[in-house]
Design a protein that fits this description.
Largest sheet: 5 strands, mixed
Oligomer: single chain
Number of strands: 12
Number of helices: 11
Radius of gyration: 22 Å
Helix content: 40-55%
Shape: elongated
């Protein structure tokens, strides 16, 4: 979160203290936050401790591995963000020429990257040229945690049909898809109209790492049976590249394969699975809050419009 901060010398909570605590929360480290803010680490640490003394709560849990927001800090975080947003609106109303626009941060499990994510970011940037967009690939549990801590504004996550949806977030259904087998066009599986589990087991399998919805789906699909050889990787994008290089087959939602550049180039293709498989839902989530930053709200709306254009929910 980059803003021009005015120095203040009066007692009480200061705007820059709130800026600093959000930077530490987002980056997970006093050291990294100090580097971004161009401060010495002792100076940043002292500023945060002054804020904690002023508020009477420990905002951070400090460990050797880094600093993260405490439970008390998470309860106060929506109020901190609301204050900073109010300061932004005040500066905008006053016509401050040098105010730096908010950065919008999106966590994604790397699903529907080409048909949805990239066009949505491109459209948003066209209407918000001064707003930076940071896209971070992560597992679903990490996205949820970072959303709650305020490090992400939006999260793109997958659910299997029938899954319970997290109640800590405002949730918007974007796309429903079917699991498909992604292979090279010269793979024996590409000659089949549908691929059975027995067919899939004849080829090396590129599986998503534990923590991804498609890992859970494939584990359920195989029912304890083992492929001839398997790889484990993070996210659909790496999985598709491994398929294109001839390392094996992978199972992904169809919205992550159809119209992909590798598909258009003829490097990969997909085939439906035999039988009745649960659908996969791509969902957009954000932390529940009384006030949503305008830039995050606008990008949320762009995602919804783009999903509707793709035939989504």
């Amino acid at each position: 979160m980059n803003r021009v901060v005015r120095g203040q010398h009066s007692d009480g909570v200061r705007t820059e203290q709130l800026e600093y605590i959000t930077a530490v929360t987002r980056l997970g480290s006093l050291h990294r936050a100090a580097e971004e803010l161009h401060l010495s680490q002792p100076a940043l640490s002292e500023t945060v401790r002054n804020l904690e003394r002023e508020l009477g709560v420990d905002l951070l849990e400090r460990k050797r591995s880094g600093a993260k927001m405490s439970a008390e800090g998470r309860e106060l975080l929506p109020h901190i963000i609301n204050v900073l947003d109010a300061v932004d609106r005040l500066r905008g109303a006053a016509g401050e020429q040098h105010r730096i626009s908010r950065m919008v941060r999106v966590g994604t499990v790397n699903a529907a990257t080409v048909p949805l994510l990239l066009p949505a970011v491109r459209e948003f940037r066209a209407s918000h040229p001064a707003t930076q967009v940071e896209v971070v690939g992560a597992q679903q549990s990490d996205i949820h945690r970072t959303l709650l801590e305020g490090g992400f504004d939006l999260g793109l996550v997958n659910y299997l049909e029938g899954d319970d949806v997290a109640t800590d977030f405002d949730c918007t259904e974007l796309l429903w898809g079917r699991p498909v087998v992604c292979v090279r066009p010269d793979s024996p599986l590409a000659s089949l109209s549908v691929v059975s589990v027995s067919d899939l087991l004849t080829q090396p399998l590129i599986a998503m790492r534990s923590g991804y919805v498609m890992h859970r789906f494939v584990h359920r699909l195989l029912g304890g049976r083992e492929p001839s050889f398997s790889y484990s990787t993070d996210g659909a994008e790496m999985g598709k590249l491994m398929v294109a290089e001839g390392l094996g087959a992978t199972v992904l939602p169809d919205f992550s394969v159809i119209d992909d550049p590798l598909t258009r180039q003829g490097a990969i293709t997909c085939r439906p699975l035999a039988g009745d498989s649960p659908r996969v839902l791509l969902m957009l989530q954000r932390r529940k809050a009384d006030s949503v930053p305008q830039a995050a709200h606008d990008l949320h709306e762009v995602f919804v419009r783009r999903a509707e254009a793709l035939g989504g929910t």
